[in-house]
Design a protein that fits this description.
single chain; alpha/beta; Mannitol-specific EII, Chain A; six-stranded mixed beta sheet; 6 strands; globular; PTS_SugarTrans_NitroReg
């Protein structure tokens, strides 16, 4: 799949979520095309059509963050997850601790400005994910040395390892498709 340079068929020059008129041009990196009004990734609805991205909060909205550290980036996205109703506030401390522990094991930055912070916790029934954009870049200690500008944060259930792996697989496939 290639990133859309316009809204889906039948919706030319309109955001499929908010309906506002938009002007989209192809950009680098591919897929970096949020609606200026609501922030939804304009190519994301096509990826969601197979149901493989139902775990994303905000219907795949790309949340812009102004973080300067990876810990701040992760904390900001977890707070946004709570604010959007994707994660119960009582689970946020456990999610943060698990995500920070995962980063201590090794970076979740995969190169090309992308990181996939992920962890599993008790008390969660299903996988929940959120998309973040850090326009100024955040140092995640990526193997290619590039600052991270796009984050796919996932929190899964300790009781559902297969759902967690399916979500990681869906994210990996989406990243490969837009590179």
């Amino acid at each position: 799949m290639t990133p859309a340079s316009r809204a889906p068929e039948g919706e030319s020059n309109r955001c499929p979520l908010c309906g506002d008129a938009i002007s989209i041009s192809p950009s680098r990196p591919p897929g970096d095309a949020p609606c200026p009004n609501c922030g939804v990734l304009l190519w994301w609805p096509a990826l969601q059509s197979d149901g493989g991205f139902a775990f994303l909060v905000g219907e795949g909205t790309l949340y812009e963050i102004a973080a300067t550290t990876k810990e701040d980036a992760i904390a900001t996205l977890v707070r946004q997850m709570v604010d959007q109703g994707g994660l119960d506030a009582s689970l946020a401390p456990d999610a943060l601790a698990a995500l920070y522990r995962r980063e201590e094991v090794g970076t979740t930055a995969i190169g090309g400005g992308v990181a996939i912070p992920h962890a599993r916790i008790d008390g969660l029934d299903q996988v929940v994910g959120i998309l973040g954009c850090a326009p100024h870049g955040v140092d995640f200690g990526s193997v290619d040395g590039a600052p991270v500008t796009h984050l796919f944060l996932l929190v899964g259930s300790q009781n559902d390892p297969s759902g967690y792996l399916r979500a990681l697989e869906a994210v990996a496939k989406a990243i490969r498709a837009i590179r």
